[in-house]
Amino acid sequence: MKLRIVIQVVCFFLAAKCLGQECGVTTQDQESWSKRYERNLLQRNSVNHRTLAEIPITFHLVGRQNGVGRAAIKEALSLLCQLNQDFKGALITFYLSENGINLVNDDGIFTAPQLAINKLAMQKIRNPNSINVFVANKINDGGAIGIYDEAEDWVLIHKSAFLSGNKTLAHEIGHFFSLYHPHFGWESTPWTTANDGTKVGVMASDGKTLTENMDRINCYLAGDQLCDTPPDYNFGLNWQKSCVFGGMALDANGTRVIPDESLIMSYFNDSCRSTFTQEQISLMRTDLTADNRQFLFGGATPPNLSLGKETEIRDPEGMTSYFSKDSISFSWDPVVNANFYYLEVDRSANFNLDPKGILVRENNIKFSQNWIEGINYYARVFSWNEHNTCLSPSPVQVFQINSVTSNTDWNLAKKFNFHYLSGLILVDYKDVTHGSYFFQLYNLKGDLVTRKTIEIGRSGQDMVVFENNLTPGMYIMNVFGHHNFSQKIMILD
Predict the structure, then answer these.
(1) Helix or strand or coil: residue 286?
(2) Dihedral through CA 360, CA 365, CA 369, CA 374, nearest 10?
(3) Label partner for 48 (CA 20 to 30 A): which of 17, 71, 128, 247?
(4) Whole-model pTM?
(5) Where is pLDDT greater, at 5 or 460?
(6) Please, which residues bridge with residue 379 across strands?
(7) How far apart are CA 450 and CA 68, in angstroms?
(8) Cα–Cα distance for residue pair 202/478, rounded to 1 Å
């Protein structure tokens, strides 16, 4: 019984390891675009690869119908930043298209994007002028974490692989640009000593692809038909413990095979993969000249403007109490050249408990939800524009919610007397502990109207708190100092 349990655990570990690296693109899938691949091989030397290619991309972040389970916006920003680094050597840069981060709520796409009915729904929301990347909870029935669907010409990524540092997205976009795996022909059955012995045969495991040899004599005919991608018999799928392949595979000539573990189109560990070869780059750039890729250049490219420094949240201020439990007004410093902001709030400092967020274009928003009193909330803001998504988020702001619709310190409240006169809110006080006091004025909708910090001395006096021409109505004045309290103020005509 104990032996059976151990075997099950080992099998589960191996399955998880394979799932973590498996691209759903098979040998047969790659053969479906073989004519395009052959065209690119033939024409690659006649294409100018030295100009920058700016490519629009759209991330469709799919959640359930209620929005639960969606991949995080911060990962889309981080992966786009990483993607541009991965393709920098190819002089290819990606930018967010119009509505480039599309939040989709659809149970069908979330759980089964491979079904025809759900593909129809995806076709309706795809952006016709960009690369479309759908991030869902399932990719196909084989358990893959990424796939390029050549028939639909879009990319699907499992949300578990839509994480900073993961190379699945770059790998699948390589397929979008026609690239084969360097282990072409070995997808379904990777090399193992158990299946193949030490020395492989002249044909790959698919029985029809020529095995590439280390001497490169057959490199234009074998495997991916590129000579600067060394032989790889799908070693990476089962070799994840380091970035130096330690298997003792021999090619058909008996020469030890030394693959390139750094290739993004391989199956080696994410920490190893970082490069495209020059021949792979020439194929991708040639693919961009094809008629079926001209839709990527149909729209106006937004200007590539650098962002200013990261923002800071100004409201709410740290650990401040608020009078409304239903809605809170947030504001932050605008970031130079930022066109989009994402406010994220959670009860966890790691933003992994129950994160909520709002995507906006302005640097302020009213956030409505059922806030819980007396606990810490954490907030941060991400800022970006179409081309630049690498800016760090704002420092995390910590705050609490406390209902103060009635006086919470009657003794202190009796020491302050607010009144309104000719556009001024005045206060006189007596027997107040001297020091700094923070005043906030809210309307009854929960909007912060204005705020001010005032140094109060020992002696009572009539002093101006706010100089605002307020519209008539009821307001709430919150006071924070040695004690906290609130008081209603009626503004009359």
Answers:
(1) helix
(2) 130
(3) 128
(4) 0.81
(5) 460
(6) 345, 397
(7) 36
(8) 81
d(Cα 61, Cα 99) in Å, to the nearest integer?
12
User: SS3 of 97, please?
Assistant: strand
Write out the two tokens for 135.
């991030």
User: Taking the alpha carbons of 319, 424, 482, 443 in that order, is the dihedral positive or negative?
Assistant: negative
Predicted confidence (pLDDT) per residue in 33-81, tens digit: 999 999 999 999 988 888 999 999 999 999 999 999 999 999 999 999 9
What is the per-residue DSSP string for 405-452?
SS-S-HHHHTTEEEEEETTEEEEEESSPPPEEEEEEEEETTS-EEEEE
Residue carrying the six token digits 């080696």: 268
DSSP strands (E only) in 106-173: 131-136, 146-149, 154-158
Is the Cβ–Cβ distance between 401 and 478 less than 8 Å? Answer: no
Phi-psi region of 78 (alpha: psi -120 to 50; beta: other; left: phi over 0): alpha
Q: Which residue has the tokens 């998504």?
A: 389
Cα separation, 96 vs 389, whole angstroms: 9
**C-alpha to C-alpha distance for 481 and 136, rounded to whole angstroms:** 49
Nearest to 416 by CA among 472, 482, 369: 482
Backbone Cα Rg of the chain:
30
Fill in the amino acid letter for 174: G
- Spatial CA neighbour of 450 closest among 476, 472, 486, 474: 476
Is-contact 301 295, C-beta < 8 A? no
> How far is residue 426's CA from residue 408's CA, in Å, rounded to a whole number?
21
- What are residue 113's phi and psi, to 5 degrees? -70, -10
Residue bearing the bigger pLDDT, 384 or 415: 384
Name the band, by pLDDT with cuts 50, 70 and 90, for residue 406: very low
Q: CB within 8 A of 400, min separation 6: which ones?
A: 319, 320, 321, 373, 374, 375, 376, 377
